[in-house]
Design a protein that fits this description.
The protein is an all-alpha fold. It has nine helices and no strands. The protein has helices at 3-19, 29-36, 40-46, 50-67, 74-87, 89-95, 104-119, 131-150, 157-179. It is elongated and about 65 Å long. The model has no long low-confidence stretch (mean pLDDT 89).
Length: 181
């Protein structure tokens, strides 16, 4: 592992440790650096702000993990996504409570919109712009994810993934039935 990655992982661990006791908005760059024994210059060499660090954590822990997997269908990836957030829910409960520029919510919305836009191309063939549809579903998915994770006793990831699938496929069947009448 390169020195750069060692530093990034140390900063990530420090942030995760701090999030156990306080909300993200109450954590400063100085706090993160103090926990891992680095100076602020080291932090800013790697990240613009703490929100970029949160997004990097998600990217390195989840996106790089699933990039090389072969899924039989998109629902398997959704279940993997839910399992990852469930396993790391203490961190993501706090990270997802912060809204605004560079927030994890914005980052996830952008990632999900891109994935859904590509995935929905065949479904909405002929539409001048698929993006509004993808944004709608990304927002709905993100809202459901937050609500699920913030519940005191959230359902197991498999159950939540099945719930999402039932919601979306049930709606799709209803729309298809109405349009074929």
């Amino acid at each position: 592992m390169s020195d750069s990655n060692i530093t990034k992982y140390a900063l990530a661990q420090a942030l995760k440790e701090l999030l156990k006791t306080r909300p993200l908005e109450k954590i400063s760059i100085g706090n993160i650096c103090e926990v891992c024994g680095m100076n602020r210059k080291s932090f800013y060499y790697h990240f613009r702000d703490k929100y970029e660090l949160v997004n990097w954590i998600y990217y390195t822990e989840f996106i790089t993990r699933v990039r090389d997997k072969s899924y039989a269908n998109g629902w398997e990836m959704v279940e993997d996504f839910c399992a990852y957030f469930y396993e790391n829910r203490e961190f993501y409960q706090k990270a997802l409570q912060t809204e605004g520029q560079n927030s994890l919510s914005d980052y996830l919305r952008d990632v999900m919109t891109a994935i859904l836009t590509e995935d929905m191309a065949h479904t909405f063939e002929g539409e001048p712009s698929i993006r509004p549809f993808a944004e709608f579903y990304a927002d709905a998915f993100l809202c459901a994810l937050k609500k699920w994770l913030l519940q005191k006793d959230c359902a197991p990831p498999h159950d939540f993934a099945v719930f999402l699938q039932k919601c979306l496929t049930g709606l799709s069947r209803e729309i298809a039935a109405r349009t074929s009448e």
